[in-house]
Amino acid sequence: MIISLLFLCLNLSSIFRLSSGRGALPSYNQSGYDDSIYGRSGRRLYAANDFLMSEEDYNARLEKLAQGGYMSNFELEKAMQEFNSRCPNISRIYSIGKSVLGVPLLAMEISDSPGNMDAEPSFKFIGNVHGNEPVGRELLLMLANWLCDNYLKDSLATTIVDGVHLHILPSVNPDGYALRRRGNANHVDLNRDFPDQFFPVNDDMDLRQPETKAMLNWMEDIHFTASATLHGGALVANYPWDGTEDKRRDYFGCPDDKTFRFLASIYSRSHYNMSLSKEFPGGITNGAFWYPIYGGMQDWNYIHSGCFELTLEISDDKWPDASELPTIWDHNRMSMLNLVGSVIKTGIHGRVLSSDGIPLPAAIAIRGINYTIAAGKKFGEYYRLLAPGEKYEVIASMPGYRSKRACVILGEGAVTVDFVLDPETSSTHSESRVLEDYARCYFDSTPSLQVVDFLPATQLEISLLLFVMLGLLCFLMQRRARKNQKQTHVSVPRRAAVV
After folding, report:
1. What is the pLDDT of residues 8-18, one digit of tens each?
2. Which SMART domains did the record assign (predicted)?
3. Which of 220, 302, 438, 464 has the greatest number of C-beta atoms within 10 Å?
């Protein structure tokens, strides 16, 4: 009886702490941006996919999960190894480093070619950043097993495995989990330990936590297109920026604010009830407007890695009873799958090659958006996430090469645009390619001949193009004049001869 009362008191205290933590502040849309524009796109990205395991096996697995409760760090590692044993052809297990107490930070890769570099995009899920928020650990294992069980049976599972390198790090803070506290073994909040654009957090890399160092190295090694971290304590999809320049609580959107709203809406509108939130309109929020934080992982991903990361609060309770995990999984399953699928089902994709066919790690920019991503070094591939329903001008540039631009009218589907860049020292033989592409605009992967803005990148090239066109016009006019003179000269004797 005494133990039960103590447990009840602990639960009540955690609830009171939540009221003064994330989720305590109201959220309003002050950006003037209409989220309803992309609402339908978010929901219809994929049709609902039914779980293809038998109902008996599915219920048995969920019942076992509810009875067994949360996994220990040892049990989590064992579960990951068992998953890899069941699905060796589409998975691998690897470590990105160790925690303060020496626990391996194990990650899973799910792909039709795990461990191999190719032109497919990479997505990462991260759980348990805060030790006292363990729901993500369990859900990420369930996601991995769902993909294993449904690969080649379910179209969405097959699309993800065949088209994406999905990396899953169930627990980046195993020490905090074992100690049942927010920070790591050194009492450091890992989501305040990353480099920050506004205020220095830890300028000395050697002073950062081992878990943070492991994450930074991991993101340096793998070219991630998008990412999401799973937290607890609220029900909302959070997007950058997480902080403001003056530390005020205010809406502060990043250059890709529309795109992040679209991605957040994909998650919230695929969720059972996240988009119905009364606290957060549409189930999404700007981090700085919710409450500013500094040294967070989300902003660092976008600034330094070209990776679009969301912070997902997936349960109102930080540490809900294990019996609630099956329901939380059901509520988040389609959201997690649709978010991963978005990296290949939306946006503008393609490759950048030299005129000799060599892949180029070119910079990919969008006119009007002050942000660039880099194409892959080995294959020259790029995946530029963008909100649908807009016309974009995509610019590919590389030192030593002439820049190229293309117009894209982006619908709900992805559009493929490949660039071939000519060396700056090359002659004007490439003008024919420029003229050929002048009237090309791209619609959902299908080229359509319409007059759009597609111009060389420099004023010199523009002047050269106009000069060539003017010269061609003068040549045609002179040719016509000579022809008329010749016809007049020949016609006189013919008429005379007839007479």
Report:
1. 444 444 433 33
2. Zn_pept
3. 302
Ordered by start, the domain boundaries in the chain are 17-345, 348-449
Residue range 348-449, CATH number: 2.60.40.1120
Respond yes or no: is residue 279 known to be catalytic: no
Confidence of residue 464 (pLDDT cuts 50, 70, 90): low
Class for the domain spanning 17-345: alpha beta
3-state SS string for the chain = CHHHHHHHHHHHHHHHHHHCCCCCCCCCCCCCCCHHHHHHHHHCCCCCCCCCCCHHHHHHHHHHHHHHCCCCHHHHHHHHHHHHHHCCCCEEEEEEEECCCCCEEEEEEECCCCCCCCCCCEEEEEECCCCCCCHHHHHHHHHHHHHHHHCCCCHHHHHHHHHCEEEEECCCCHHHHHHCCCCCCCCCCHHHCCCCCCCCCCCCHHHCCHHHHHHHHHHHHCCEEEEEEEECCEEEEEECCCCCCCCCCCCCCCCCHHHHHHHHHHHHHHCCCHHHCCCCHHHEEEHHHHCCCCCCHHHHHHHHHCCEEEEEEEECCCCCCHHHHHHHHHHHHHHHHHHHHHHHHCCEEEEEEECCCCECCCEEEECCEEEEEECCCCCCEEEECCCCCEEEEEEEECCCECCEEEEEEECCCCEECCEEECECCCCHHHHHHHHHHCCEEEECCEEEECCCCCCCCCHHHHHHHHHHHHHHHHHHHHHHHHHHHHHHHHHHHHHHHHC
Residue 472 confidence class, pLDDT cut points 50, 70, 90: confident
Q: Which candidate in 120, 138, 313, 381 is catalytic?
A: 313
Supply the pTM of this predicted model: 0.77
pLDDT tens digits, residue range 91-114?
A: 999 999 999 999 999 999 999 999
